[in-house]
Amino acid sequence: MTLTDLRYLVALARERHFGHAAERCNVSQPTLSVAIKKLEDELAVTLFERSAADVKITDIGARIVAQAEKVLLEAGQIKELATAGRDPLSGPLKLGVIYTIGPYLLPHLIPRVHGAAPSMPLLIQENYTARLAESLKRGDLDVIVVALPFEEPGIVTQAVYDEPFRVLMPAGHAWEEDAAIPAARLAEAPLLLLGAGNCFRDQVLEVCPLCRGGEGLQRTLEGSSLETIRHMVATGAGITVLPSSAADPLPEGNPLLTVRPFEAPEPFRRIALAWRVTYPRSGAIDVIRAAILGSPLQGVRPVTR
Amino acid sequence: MTLTDLRYLVALARERHFGHAAERCNVSQPTLSVAIKKLEDELAVTLFERSAADVKITDIGARIVAQAEKVLLEAGQIKELATAGRDPLSGPLKLGVIYTIGPYLLPHLIPRVHGAAPSMPLLIQENYTARLAESLKRGDLDVIVVALPFEEPGIVTQAVYDEPFRVLMPAGHAWEEDAAIPAARLAEAPLLLLGAGNCFRDQVLEVCPLCRGGEGLQRTLEGSSLETIRHMVATGAGITVLPSSAADPLPEGNPLLTVRPFEAPEPFRRIALAWRVTYPRSGAIDVIRAAILGSPLQGVRPVTR
DNA sequence: GATTGGCAATAGAGATTAACTATACAACGT
DNA sequence: ACGTTGTATAGTTAATCTCTATTGCCAATC
Fold this sequence. Notes:
Number of strands of chain A: 12
Low-confidence stretches of chain A: none
Shape of chain A: rod-shaped
CATH architecture of the largest domain in chain A: 3-Layer(aba) Sandwich
Largest sheet of chain A: 8 strands, mixed
Number of helices of chain A: 11
CATH class of the largest domain in chain A: Alpha Beta
Strand content of chain A: 15-25%
CATH topology of the largest domain in chain A: D-Maltodextrin-Binding Protein, domain 2
Oligomer: homodimer
Structural class of chain A: alpha/beta
């Protein structure tokens, strides 16, 4: 029993004439004849009464035809689903973002994606890189926004932008005098750091080798966020390092904080998109990339690939 | 897209492993592999993300698999319907009976059929032979009970029983003296006849050639029935001829009527079943025949074929 | 960094099935 | 009896499905 057989069946039920039904199916009369006979044999049921005068459907035949029509209808739905799903910009996209990007990127990203792909709702999750990677590989996420380096088997990454680091200090801090801060000087101040697991923490520590072994004055704030740290800096609890997108928009509205760039070579992080090599909706990824690049993130430099 | 393809599809969706899914479908891994690829090409949609680690279903893939399961379920229903409909004794049987048999046969027939084939309800229609034949050929009826001769293209008949005719007269009638009535004498009495269209009317006229041209005292009662005529005979309006099944049960309970057989050669009618040559439920016909022969119809002689 | 092992894709051969054309067969109607 | 109409069958060709064998691809391991 094939779908073709069922199509022949309902055609014959409608036409009540083997020749006409065959014509309607674009096959020869013997083809349809054989197919119906095969079906009847397979089901061990007489579906039609053939006579010279005409073709009559049996009682059981009528019931089976009705069911066959249902099958064909449902099968047709498959094609419709496929057509509807063919557009990579239709259907939800599961997006993961690390904690130190989400709050600054998403407010810009979401409306832009919605504008470019209205029928692609975003299901967003913020988490650590490691967790995002896990979810991505498991298929719980489709695309993630992370900082490089990010190497995972089966995962491809595409750099999107570079983002310089900034030093954030309370207004009136001594370093306010300087237009730019040397990285090494970080070890001299009480540096507030994110908890373990945040890649940004590691990157900051990388900037300041002296802070590495915990020999500096830095203080780790487990379970915290850049926003929390920012508030703590404003209260004079110390200084911190922020990515430019988090730091640069601040000073205007906040008289308690001062932002200074690093001295060259300016430390920065490279933000990238990552997805499974096998992920088929590349069009959706392009939209995300474009939306990110279209977002007014302060201080960032697009990476032309 | 075939039902087999869909089976492969749902198997792969369940197993998430080409080899295992193929095994479950009793085919080789390449078979399933190409089938899925073919499906993906046909639908122009990626259903699965293949990677070394494992097979992930895409979003659209999952929706299509769900739909495929629905299709397979509905298709399975076809087999179930066929199995259920395989029994010729299941499902309603559309039975037609001529007016002059129905009232005497059906009260016996119905319980017997119900006993022999409980899941075969009878849809009964009483009518003239010509109307029954029409309905039978059109497929509105499956089997009819008629009097022979009955010749129709595409219709087969099977004699069931012979039924002698009887003369019915009011009690106290002059002919009461005689044990049997010669057919020719019918022309001498006011003979009450059914209306045109009733085959029994023609058969009675056949018995009495003198009545033929309307030269006798007979009176035609259009739109009447044997029961009506019987009541008229009881009131002394005339005599009539009845089939034995209608006549013989009468006298016991009715002091106003007298029944006499004909003289030899006793006129009779041959009752038969008729159905389309193509009608597939021969088992149902056998049940009807057996139920008729099992009915206590007075005076009838089974026809051994 | 080379190697191995697991797994899906591909190639090529063989078998099955589906389609065609031509023709036989059955049943009515003239 | 013959012709017409309509379905079934025969035989052939083409398409397809499925197989085994093999390749290719990753990723994990030594």
